[in-house]
Amino acid sequence: MMMTYGMFVFALGTAPYQELQRQSAWRHEGQGRVGHRPARQYLGPGDDTITLTGTLLPHFTGGQQNLDQLRQMANEGAAWPLIEGNGTFYGLYVIESLSEAKSHQMRDGSAQRIGFSLTLQRVDDDRADLLGSLNGALARAATGLLA
Question: Which residue segment(s) compose the domain that 113 sits in?
Answer without folding.
Answer: 3-144
